[in-house]
Amino acid sequence: MALIELEQVSRHYALDGVTVRALQDVSLRIDAGEMVAIMGASGSGKSTLMNLLGCLDKPTAGRLTVDGHDLAALSSDRTSALRRDTFGFVFQRYHLLAHLDAVGNVELPAIYAGHGRRERRRRAIALLQRLGLGDRLGHKPSALSGGQQQRVSIARALMNGGRIILADEPTGALDRSSGAEMLALLAELNAAGHTVILVTHDDSVAAHARRVIELSDGRIVRDSRAPEAATAAPPPAPVAAPPAARGALQALARAVVPWREAVAMGWRALNGSRLRSALSMLGISIGIAAVVSIMALSGGMRAQIQDSLDRFATNHFLVSKGNLKLPPGAVARPFTPGEQAALRALPGVTAVEASYVANLPARHGQRDANVYANGSNPGDLARSNEAIVLGRDLRPQDIDSAAKVAVLNDKARDALFTADEPVLGRQVMVGPLTLTVVGVSESRLPTGPAPGAIYLPQSTYTSQIDTRPVTDALSVHFDSRQDAEALLAQVQQRLRALHGGVEDFSVSDGLKIRRSLDAVLATVGRVLTAIASISLLVGGVGVMNIMLVSVSERTREIGIRRAVGARQSDVQRQFLIESVLLCCLGGLAGLALPWLATLAINSAGSGLQLSLSWDALALALGTCTLIGLLFGNMPARHAATLSPVAALARD
């Protein structure tokens, strides 16, 4: 069976609406171990034939088989695998990647074959040493002569075995001495069992082959063999690449290699154009910084407000006399001490406070004010989020003795006393009572201006101001670990039973306030985050633009990768990973600003404590990855679908 066989193969191109017949009805058979020269003038079709022979292109008509495989029946990935494992290309322009050293360029085909780093590096070094480049391993193409670059390309062609070596004008860019060395090296490889196909227009180069095929106007016009070729002994088999390790773990390791190397190559590509990469990351950095800052700010504000609500509203219910749903003529009943005791007996209830409040005139010296007189017990102020800032709170002995003492809140103090006037120990008139001021309180809640209030012992209030044993309002306090919804239902059920099945009362549930405020804060946070996300969208468009530019600039590199065996998915993965790396690096840079701002605000002691949660960090990086995948997909797909022939032809 022929190693390569063409049967009536034609290749036509459409160029500006005109059909160009590059090859026409070509039939050709090349056996293993041959050294063949394909000759012809410019435009004769020899480059097109080389592209077909190397599986870089497919015929328009006819049948092309390589090692028994019909090229027309192979998928793109299987064609890439055939090219990777069977062919080695030696190009006239060398086609080495400028950012890789000699070893890196030689290793390239083995990456797509899944060989591990140590294994392929060892083989690459051995090949370069074999070709006389042992002292040039770490040199990049710009530091190598033309002959040395051509030797690197031969080593790359042999990396995966190079059963068939295709050399396109191998001496075209070399001086006479280097050209002679190159031809001698190709003859040596042919003697070692490699099938060598030379494409040239030079008769002196073609003379080194045992068979010469000449093309003219896309057709074969001459196919001649050297006389000794017919009687020559079959050549030895070429030196193959090391066999791939077998087994599940080895297969997994081989599958990981392209991914790991794609990340490394992506990092090198970004590092090679640092300024452009930094500018591309800027939009992502700004977007991430804005989104994370808003998340931290809204989270801090929500925590602060919820903390206040926890102290104020979420651990007690306010029960008041009356209900708008009562039928006309119905009279709501006040709450008796027995009903208060019944509520206090419910599981989870920590206290039931009767509300004793009256709006009364107050006087001190020549200053008058209307204040709310509150009959209170020790601890009531703390439960109402009032903090003593001067003097003391009410004491149990004040209750027992019905003492005529009072605690003023800051508003009542400001209304009745001048700014520099002492308060403690002074007397104020409240309704019919004269009370001695023992303390001043201040609200701990972030609310608006509160009315003036004076707190006096409940026993004093009920004996001197309102002597009724009932009250119109209750405050039911409960353990914060208690199920508030269940306890609320129990309070309502108990009071209905005590009031003869009539719901003539209303319960103000602080949880509703919290839920409403939570919903408002969440909505505001989402709106602000959506606004900030616009910058992420702009940054994503910038990344897509720069990746499209990168694909355009690296078209020849894409062609080289496809020629050495990269599949379309390998190329697509390469550019997608670069896009994701670009976005994630931008995201990490964008996280630095809100992190520093959080440290500064928290250190300033403003009372607003911000925090960057791990969830926010994970969300930011996840968002960057998603942006990289979404906006890098189109450039990556464009790169993957480029024709290897067209890509290699790009300067």
Instruction: Label the overall shape.
Output: rod-shaped
Uncertain regions: pLDDT < 50 for 5+ in a row? Answer: 229-233
- Percent strand: 15-25%
CATH architecture of the largest domain: 3-Layer(aba) Sandwich
Number of domains: 3
Q: What are its keywords?
A:
about 50% helix; about 650 residues; 20 helices; alpha/beta; Rossmann fold; 6-stranded mixed β-sheet; 6-stranded mixed barrel
Secondary-structure blueprint of this entry?
Layout: E1 4-15, E2 18-30, E3 35-39, H1 46-53, E4 61-66, E5 69-70, H2 76-86, E6 87-90, H3 102-112, H4 117-130, H5 146-158, E7 164-168, H6 176-191, E8 195-200, H7 203-206, E9 211-216, E10 219-225, H8 248-272, H9 274-312, E11 316-321, H10 337-344, E12 349-354, E13 356-364, E14 367-376, H11 380-383, E15 386-391, H12 396-400, E16 405-409, H13 410-416, E17 427-430, E18 433-443, E19 453-457, H14 458-464, E20 473-478, H15 484-498, E21 505-509, H16 510-553, H17 555-563, H18 568-604, H19 614-640, H20 644-649
Parallel strand pairs: 3-8, 3-9, 6-7, 7-8, 14-19, 16-18
Antiparallel strand pairs: 1-2, 1-4, 4-5, 9-10, 11-20, 11-21, 12-20, 13-14, 13-17, 15-18, 16-19, 17-18
Helix pairs in contact: 3-4, 3-5, 8-18, 9-16, 9-18, 9-19, 16-18, 16-19, 18-19
